Amino acid sequence: MLTVAKLRFEMQDILKLAGFIICCCKGRIPNTLRIMSDQYDVIIVGAGPAGLTAGYILTKKSNERIAILEAHPTLVGGISRTERYKDYLFDIGGHRFFSKSQEIENLWREILPDDFIERPRKSRIYYNGKFYSYPLRAFEALRNLGIWESFVCVLSYVKARIFPITSPRTFREWVSNQFGARLFNIFFKTYTEKVWGISCDEISADWAAQRIKGLNLAIAVWRAVMKSLGISNRRGGKKVVKTLIESFRYPRRGPGMLWDAAAKRTVAQGGEILMAHEARRFVYDAGADLWTVKGIDAAGKEFNFTARHVISSAPLRDVMQAIVPLPGSATAARELKYRDFITVAIMLNHAPEFDDNWIYIHDPSVKVGRVQNFSSWSPDMVPNDHSGCLGLEYFCFENDGIWATPDSALIDLAKNELEKLGFAKREHMTDGVVVRQKKAYPVYDDHYKAVVETIRRDLEQNYPGFHPVGRNGMHKYNNQDHAMMTGVLTAENIMAGVEKFNVWNVNEDAEYHEEVGPDRSAALNSLREVPERVQN
Question: How far separated are the first and last CA of the chain, in Å rounded?
Fold first, then answer.
């Protein structure tokens, strides 16, 4: 039995075929596979990891007619894209390809089988003019801190263990209890406040417990000593902690290489990717059970595409204001906040002096939070062995002082800070470029959980066929592999015609193996935390 919506699509198929035959009989081949139709089974908003993965799976495993709308004029991949400036390539942040999910690992290899390279993982902390390996190397840390500072750190740690703060409420109190106030100030305070723009006295202790769970100073020092002595810490076949892996895979020319390949495969499988198409309205027709996505293309022309399903990785706060009829949760959605991000890429006329992938900057005298060394991610990111590209990362809120700073001033700031840190001399800096990334990190404040849950219930009850995915689409601080999994499970739900999987449960520590059984939701039960403010 055909529904009204299904009948409408069947009639469109007949009209499309007739139009195609007429064109061909007149000796003209249509230059688009849409063949004058604006109707689909699925419209995907955003060609980032979540959206492209959903599109790839749907076009590979089903006959669903899909279109992916991407606002960027030329690049796919979202925050995982690779930017190009002249002969230099660089990431928006660094994107390691390492996942607990074998399913996602397999998907990476399937999409990009020949262009992954194995790279050593090296990152250090820069504090008070010295480098500290991350993870900790005990003898190096003692040498850098000096005998007196090391002694004070140990005393601070012992004091914290004997006289801990009762019922710690803040990030500072919790970390000081675990490591001592001295080590908190050295290795936690400055960087945390740079990244999140929140005082450590305002961040909840619950986030600290999640973010640093499983870390014990005594065990960490013991492991560091063993490593310094060349003795393996791996015992009993236990898995390596994800944050402490010593190598990772990486596309030869940056993560955008993977997403370019995913886009090409999706199109080859029958999907469409429409660049410079900005979705602005999502109109739901409850009677026909259809969505109409309205927006503007590169030429400023309005478009109207209709589909049974909409998959959206666009920021949840903005999306809820754009749905028609306006959801009851739209007012609450305005409370959702985001942390923004600026990369200033500085080109050098020589290879960098250090081979770290990135360096955490714990020095409070500079604004930069992290420095990426893109040639250490892959040699193919720079033109030759005699050049370099360093990416200075500044964390901010949109329209605050640093976000509104002109590009030329930001480049000058980055050059000054590189020289101040001793990472490069100004005379060796040949060029620079600025890339701003809005809404890089969802902010988890006092109200976000209640707001997201309200939105989720509203969409499920009143707007069927609308599927949020990805980091910003779900207001969850997902990694690239977790964003991909939301796309995979959403695609499977659409193909099944029922909600087999609860996509909202995809998070940091989950594993998504098929061996879990037909209901993978049993494995999707943990949460990657980002800072929450202290509850009063």
Answer: 57
The one-letter code for the residue type at 332 is A
Single out the residue of 508, 510, 502, 512 nearest to residue 530, CA to CA: 508
Token readout for 247 is 């190598």
Beta strands in 276-355 (DSSP E): 278-285, 290-296, 302-312, 323-324, 337-348
**Token pair 């769970």: residue:** 213
Contacts of 392 (CB under 8 A, 6+ apart): 343, 344, 345, 346, 368, 370, 371, 372, 414, 417, 418
SS3 29: coil
Query: Per-residue pLDDT for 241 more than 60?
Result: no
Per-residue pLDDT of 265-298, as tens digits, reads 999 999 999 999 999 999 999 999 999 999 999 9
Amino acid identity of residue 3, one-letter, is: T
Distances (CA, A) of 99 to 9, 215, 488: 39, 20, 15
64: amino acid identity, one letter? E
Angle formed by the axes of helices 49-61 and 480-496, nearest 10°:
40
Which residues pair with residue 251 across a beta bridge?
116
Cβ proximity of 80 and 313 under 8 Å: no
pLDDT digits (tens, 9 = 90+) for 314-367: 999 999 999 999 999 999 999 999 999 999 999 999 999 999 999 999 998 999
For residues 279 and 293, is the Cβ–Cβ distance under 8 A? yes
Cβ atoms of 482 and 508 within 8 Å: the answer is yes
Plot region of 172 (φ>0 → left; ψ -120 to 50 → alpha; else → beta): alpha
DSSP 253: T
Give pLDDT tens digits for 78-137. Answer: 999 999 999 999 999 888 898 878 889 999 999 999 999 999 989 999 988 999 887 666
